[in-house]
Amino acid sequence: MEHELKELIKKCDLAIKHEDFETLMNYYTEDAILVVKPGMIAKGKEEIKKAFIAIAKYFNNSIVPTQGEMIILEAGDTALVISQTLLTADKMDSEYSMDRRATYVFKKNSQGEWLCAIDNSYGTDIISN
Amino acid sequence: MEHELKELIKKCDLAIKHEDFETLMNYYTEDAILVVKPGMIAKGKEEIKKAFIAIAKYFNNSIVPTQGEMIILEAGDTALVISQTLLTADKMDSEYSMDRRATYVFKKNSQGEWLCAIDNSYGTDIISN
After folding, report:
1. Which three-class secondary structure state does DSSP give residue A39?
2. Domain annotation for chain A: domains and CATH numbers
3. What is the pLDDT of residues B43-99, one digit of tens each?
């Protein structure tokens, strides 16, 4: 059986593909943050949902994220996922990388469910050096 | 004033430089993990301390870590630090990079103190693609 976080990230990717952002928001903590692009952060479910709507539009409502190689670093109720995130879309001129080394931080809540607290698909590329 | 996590990481770097691993362990959660090298994980304070002793020895007891550019992504009681981590040591033939893009996950405890839960100085380089 796959790691439950791998399954969860698959559900997130499907929700993004289907633009089902109501479902997607169930997988985030209340105070989660999303790195929309380097230097721009969305905070909390409302801002994150709006950012995903804008991202979908930017990619001509055709974005499909999938994950390649993935390593899950788990420490108690906290996990850091390092993942090759692949984006495909009907858009030829994106100024953002479509093949990323992402970093996602998940927290387990009191019901034992993993929720995304920090969604940074740009990984270490957000520092310029 | 600098972000408290930046100050804390400076204290960690100093403790590593001085090989004061008792002090260093105060900055980790009980169930913290350390990526010793890609594919090798130390779990819990005892294993992490032993790993730091081995790392110090590997670098001829001369290792000095410092941080360059750093971005702190904070979501409530959880933070992901993306940092350029520079290592210097009196060892010319290290098989590991001395200039890294590290990923550190910190958690705030009930006393409001940040503690390191996941210490991965290799960042996204732990995936091979």
Report:
1. coil
2. 4-126 (3.10.450.50)
3. 999 999 999 999 999 999 999 999 999 999 999 999 999 999 999 999 878 888 899
What residues of chain A score a pLDDT lower than 70?
A: 1, 129
Enter the DSSP assignment of B99: E
Q: In this structure, what DSSP letter does residue B104 have?
A: E
Measured between CB atoms, which of B33, B124, B129 is closest to A103?
Answer: B124
Contacts of A101 in chain B (CB under 8 A): 124, 127
Mean pLDDT of B117-124: 98
Could you say which DSSP state residue B39 is in?
A: T
* pLDDT, tens digit (0-9, with 9 covering 90-100), for A91-102: 878 888 899 999
How far apart are the C-alpha atoms of B73 and A120, rounded to whole Å?
Answer: 9
Full 3-state SS string of A61-113: CCCEEEEEEEEEEEECCEEEEEEEEEEECCCCCCCCCCEEEEEEEEEECCCCC
- Specify the length of chain B in residues: 129
Which of A:31-90 have CB within 8 Å of B?
31-33, 35, 41, 43, 68-71, 73-76, 78-80, 82-84
